[in-house]
Design goal:
Helix content is about 0%, strand content about 40%. By secondary structure, the chain is mainly β.
Length: about 325
């Protein structure tokens, strides 16, 4: 079969052509021109959740608690139950595949069109970690493509105050079968094991129970080495909250909103002071809206009002969009 397009899962935009009868228009904002379309319906005919909303080879796919939804045009939607009889799932994407992690029971599936889902053989994935009775496996990060295979972070969670730090390992997906790869220091116990590529090299990162960051690297997806642990210097006396791999860098998130740290190799770190986006000056009892960062600036919606803020700006621009008649906005892509 032909390979899927490079835009698979890419940032969502309204289709250039919409069906007849769909009301649409344009809007000038302080961060550029926008297009809008009024898509009428209810949650019996379209997905309840739109984040993430991903491109497929033939249209779009989303998921809510009922299953996966596909549409060629964001107007007409078709619902499918989650594959494998699972109760719920989470969508994600790599450059060449759409991924669906499902639970109750656990499963991992891939697709290009969002309609036909191919299963990943989870092999001997234990349903319970022997060192943590009562634990159950979950995927703590979305799949990552590297060198012709895909990787996923797996953790065994325990719903117990006495043992709330999961054990973790890396799953390598080759020929649609998951192979367990134990990281050095097994059993690895970190919160939220994260996977990604930094400077062309695979990295895994997570925060240990003592608040330090544990970081591993690999050039072939199977042989891993651990870097020196990163303690609370850089950091906070109370330790770190998260260690993640994102946007070709490693990021450490300080405890309770303290400064973050960024690194391109896991050895030298740059402080990233936390700068909160100013909230729109909204009166009333509705509370602060959800603010989406869109690269060129920020956007927020509340009732029939659109707020925009250019990157680096300090003054929000308010626009009345009651004629359009939408009231929420989600970041997509």
């Amino acid at each position: 079969s032909s390979p899927p397009p490079a835009s698979l899962g890419a940032e969502i935009a309204l289709p250039l052509e919409l069906p007849d009868g769909i009301e649409r228009g344009g809007l000038e904002t302080s961060i550029g021109a926008a297009r809008w379309a009024r898509i009428d319906g209810d949650f019996t005919t379209m997905p309840e959740f739109w984040n993430p909303l991903l491109r497929t080879t033939d249209g779009f796919v989303a998921a809510d608690e009922r299953g996966t939804w596909t549409s060629p045009d964001l107007v007409d939607w078709t619902l499918q139950p989650f594959p494998g009889g699972s109760s719920w799932g989470r969508l994600s994407t790599t450059d060449d595949r759409l991924w669906l992690a499902t639970y109750e029971p656990i499963g991992l599936w891939w697709s290009t069109d969002g309609i036909s889902w191919e299963p990943v053989d989870l092999g001997d994935l234990p349903q319970t970690d022997p060192s943590q009775p009562g634990s159950s496996p979950t995927f703590s990060d979305d799949p990552v493509g590297y060198g012709g295979v895909w990787l996923v972070a797996v953790q065994h969670e325990v719903d117990s105050p006495a043992s709330d730090v999961p054990t973790n390992f890396v799953g390598v997906i080759d020929d649609d079968r998951l192979e367990r790869i134990d990281l050095p220091g097994d059993p690895v116990r970190v919160s939220g094991l994260s996977l990604g590529v930094v400077a062309g090299v695979l990295h895994a990162a997570g925060v240990a129970p003592d608040g330090t960051a544990r970081i591993w690297r690999s050039k072939d997806a199977r042989a891993w080495s651990e870097l020196e642990r990163v303690g609370d210097d850089p950091g906070d006396p109370d330790g770190l909250d998260w260690a993640v791999v994102e946007d070709d860098r490693l990021v450490l998130m300080g405890h309770m909103g303290s400064d973050n740290w960024s690194s391109a190799d896991g050895r030298e770190w740059t402080r990233m002071p936390v700068e909160e986006t100013p909230q729109p000056p909204i009166d009333g009892d509705d509370g602060p809206p959800y603010v989406a960062e869109l690269g060129v600036g920020s956007v927020a919606m509340q009732t029939d009002t659109l707020w925009t803020l250019p990157s680096g700006g300090s003054e929000w621009t308010r626009q009345d969009v009651s004629e359009i008649g939408f009231g929420t906005i989600e970041r997509s892509g």
